[in-house]
From TrEMBL:
Species in which this protein is naturally found: Geothrix rubra
Stated name of the protein: Probable endolytic peptidoglycan transglycosylase RlpA
Function of the protein: Lytic transglycosylase with a strong preference for naked glycan strands that lack stem peptides.
Sorted UniProt keywords: Cell wall biogenesis/degradation, Lyase, Signal
InterPro entries: RlpA, RlpA-like_DPBB, RlpA-like_sf, RplA, SPOR-like_dom, SPOR-like_sf
HAMAP family tied to this protein: RlpA
Keyword Coiled coil in annotation: no
Family under the similarity heading: Belongs to the RlpA family.
């Protein structure tokens, strides 16, 4: 049995109340032809209007309540790909842009000049231009940064912050810190990655960064037989050494890139090479 205070009972009560209302009007007074005009027509139509208003009110009160489904944004778990949830990842972060590493003033992967005093960062796969909130899990400090470069290319690290970013998060002196990164929008709220930005920059698998041209050529020849076209990218190490990054493939989704990386790791396991996934630029 429903409670007398249940909304359904309220609707029924309202309907009964309206049903008992009798709208009464004096009969129209005859007027001479051509007289009365607008006021006469208004008076004659008033009963019909009253009935329509009463009927609309009854329908509104007896209509079942609407239901809404809320959507949540995922804020934890393994790294997420573009979709309904924000990208989340945890790992070690480092920083670059010091006085002696030679990166200040050089072009980033996005084409802009790297300024260590801006709130930017480097990530291997996040679309260039993405915004991420970075939280230092060791002291709770956090900030919002724009991805404009690729890296870090050191095993066990997921993010390279600018010098300014490392200072903001309180680990510039120690060099590294464990962080959680999360994709956000321009207001800092959790947001999924932009699919359009994601499609513009295919995945590649970086196999090695070599300085000897003969070694680069030999590795290219070996990989092309099994994996198709192999590309190279000029780069400078932290020590200022010129190298060529040897890369395989151009994959529109990460799953295909991961399969290629596993195959490359098996093929080159005797050389101590550990391929990793990054972007074409």
């Amino acid at each position: 049995m429903l409670s007398p205070f249940h909304p359904t009972n309220w609707s029924k009560a309202a309907a009964y109340w309206i049903h008992e209302i009798h709208v009464a009007f004096d009969p129209p007074v005859p007027v001479a032809p051509g007289s009365g005009g607008f006021l006469r027509r208004t008076r004659l139509g008033a009963p019909q209007v009253a009935v329509l208003v009463s009927l609309a009110f009854t329908l509104h009160c007896t209509r079942p309540p609407e239901t809404f489904t809320a959507r949540r944004t995922g804020l934890s778990g393994p790294p997420q790909q573009p979709g309904d949830r924000a990208f989340v990842e945890e790992g070690m972060a480092s920083w670059y842009g010091g006085d002696d590493d030679g990166f200040s003033g050089r072009p980033t992967a996005s084409g802009e000049i790297f300024d260590p005093d801006k709130y930017t960062c480097a990530h291997r796969t996040l679309p260039l231009g993405s915004l991420v909130e970075v939280r230092n899990l060791e002291n709770g400090k956090r900030g919002i940064f724009r991805v404009n470069d690729r890296g870090p290319f050191i095993k066990g690290r997921i993010l390279d912050l600018s010098r300014k970013g490392a200072e903001e998060l309180g680990f510039s002196d120690q060099g590294t810190a464990r962080v959680r990164i999360r994709s956000v929008d321009a207001l800092g709220a959790p947001a999924a990655l932009d699919p359009a930005l994601d499609r513009m920059d295919p995945y590649v698998v970086q196999v090695a960064a070599l300085s000897n041209p003969e070694n680069v050529k030999a590795l290219q020849d070996q990989l092309e037989d099994a994996f198709g076209p192999v590309t190279t990218q000029d780069a400078l190490t932290r020590g200022g050494i010129s190298v060529k990054r040897v890369r395989v493939g151009s994959y529109t989704n990460r799953q295909d890139a991961e399969k290629a990386a596993e195959q490359l790791a098996k093929l080159l396991k005797d050389r101590g090479v550990e391929p990793f996934i990054t972007r074409r630029r």
